[in-house]
User: What shape does this take?
Amino acid sequence: MKSSQNILLIYTGGTIGMMEDPDTGSLVPFDFAQLRMHVPELRRFDCHIDVVSFDEPIDSSDVNIDSWQRMAQMVEVNYDHYDGFVILHGTDTMAFSASALSFMLQNLDKPVIFTGSQLPIGQIRTDGKENLITAIEIASATDNGLPIVQEVGVLFQSKLFRGNRTHKYSTENFDAFESANLAPLAEVGIHINYRRDLLLRPKGPLTVRKAFDDCVGILKIFPGISRTLVEGILSIGGLRAFVLESFGAGNGPTEDWFLQALRDATARGIIILNVTQCNKGMVEQGLYETSSAFEEIGIISGGDMTTEAALVKLMYLLGLNYASADMKRILLESISGERTGD
Ligand code: ASP
Assistant: This one.
């Protein structure tokens, strides 16, 4: 690690910065200055660390488009002054925020590493210290003077994942995240072993686009789903696109009313992106008869994208106001490493 590395810690909230309220016993955020007190190791790092914080730290359940814009803004305005960025964030919606930042910050040539913890950093068995320290180490790691990681990652326990491939799968394990369709970008043990063959590299100068459109939804189907529910969701005024969470390799009911509801939606210009309810694997429309109709209706295969990445990608692309045909093409492409080529 070069001693001259400058790292910016961006504190948004979450368990990592929480303490127990002595009166109620519930977890409440504390002033970020206290985090340094709880992690004196930060002072011993062989790099310079500055801290910026959300004015009001939030539980990540309260994260919204404005939060993503503030995070991206904090990276953008400080981009030239720092070698790497660590974003401290609650685990609950970290996969959405990491996806959002991965789309907003195109052509990163510096690391933006999300981390958090399952136990507050003040508690004796906390996982927060280790996560924070490893995230800083990754954010400051270089090869021949260049950052090893040049993309948005999620560091949790012993693995660095591509941010837009992550899913929080455990409410209690210290390794709370998985990236079922892409191997970890780094494994953390005595050494940090990077998968250099997987790491993204910029194709041009950094561009930051912060517009999103929230006229989106998720329709998770289930056996016995009612016509009223499906038609109700699809007739919501202003709906522009939604993620269809389908069964297995992209399958759904073949009942006429169901297919007709989807057909009517696409005829009204609503974009439907099909991702699987399974954690691992991908949508292959047309593999079974139960998904052939989706193909014919014009539903777009989300490949192996997570629901989190698929939804945020829709919000991002709608925010950029692409024409429908371009939007469909870009949804089928990987723009930030979020899907594997089908
Ligand atoms: N509810 C918390 C949050 O997501 C949990 C955590 O920090 O891990 O903000």
Summary: The chain has a mean pLDDT of 93.
